[in-house]
Design brief:
Chains A, B: One of its GO terms (molecular function) is DNA-binding transcription factor activity. 2 copies of one chain form a homodimer. With about 200 residues, chain A is mostly helical. Chain A folds into 2 domains: about 60 residues, Arc Repressor Mutant, subunit A; about 120 residues, Orthogonal Bundle (Tetracycline Repressor, domain 2). Chain A has 9 helices and no strands. In chain A, α2 crosses α3. The longest helix of chain A has 27 residues. Chain A is elongated. Chain A starts with 9 loop residues before the first helix and ends with a helix. At the A-B interface, α6, α7, α8 and α9 of A face α6, α7, α8 and α9 of B.
Chain lengths: ~200, ~200
Amino acid sequence: MYRDGMPRSKGDHEARRRDVSEAVWQVLAARGFTSLTLRAVAAELGATTGLLTHYFPTKRALIEYALDLLEQRTVSRPRRHSGEGLAAFRDALLDILPLTPVAADSNRIWVSSWDAALSDADLSTDYARKYAAGRDRLTERVAAAQELGELPSGNPAHVAAGAQAFVLGLVVQALFDPAAFPPQRQVELLDDYLARLTAPH
Amino acid sequence: MYRDGMPRSKGDHEARRRDVSEAVWQVLAARGFTSLTLRAVAAELGATTGLLTHYFPTKRALIEYALDLLEQRTVSRPRRHSGEGLAAFRDALLDILPLTPVAADSNRIWVSSWDAALSDADLSTDYARKYAAGRDRLTERVAAAQELGELPSGNPAHVAAGAQAFVLGLVVQALFDPAAFPPQRQVELLDDYLARLTAPH
């Protein structure tokens, strides 16, 4: 579909960029960062690898683009808003789990990115910062639930770190074994976890 | 050190195999599966890539060897045995966490292997089976702790799945942010998790 070189107008350019993003996403969702090559993206797009080198002069540029795409799609995904306090804390945790095919793709790509991220000092620092920011947002919700009397008092950062660990590990289990961890079971496990948090401790 | 071709005796062969294993392990611990190449292993070993092709005729053979090595070292690692029932359940969970540099290397390699495993249907099935077997072993310990009255009654498989999720997620957090999750904090978070399990539910 894109065998005739570079786009000619700004509209063409934007449309192509969207198509390229979608092709990168599809390769990642199906085969992970291990298999992310110009050749694989070109095949997905029905384009030549030559065309793609206009977008990604190096393998590293492709990887960085993919990581940015993952970040953007994660930031802009729809979020649950079912209430305040404990309900908002639960919403934030449900938003992380692979409860839909779209969320499963996104999680599969996140897990796949961990190898690359752990292998690169800058990226590893960046990921540590992202997860710390995630814990900070959870901590605010825990503190709000404590103020409402829905969670017992105690260090909210500690509760947030535990909950983040729980959902990250549940993501990994559900990705490897979707038959054993269908959405309903993930939600049950999370609700059981939350029920234990609400008991005085 | 290994520039002169194939080993000449069985003893030489065994010694070399150990050295090759160690070189593969070091590459994985430092840079993950993404960076596992014959060239990287050869550099670590101080050998030629030519020598290594005797061991690993293809990239896939190298990856499979690395995955076997990870499995073997995990199976044969020392385990805690501090008691029965709840203590044995806690031991099994502590055995998973990156509480020592050796355990951190091993976990870093496990996390790194997830991308490759999720990208390959056979490997993915194999991993799902491994994690299910891990949950079964945890389930036995939960059931034993329930029989001793140390954990409240309830579906032990459900408790085991939650605990496995919790420690897997804690592994990921600790690998990305060892400063925020030193061994002592990991143990505190786990003990807090276990304390909530022991309360009637």
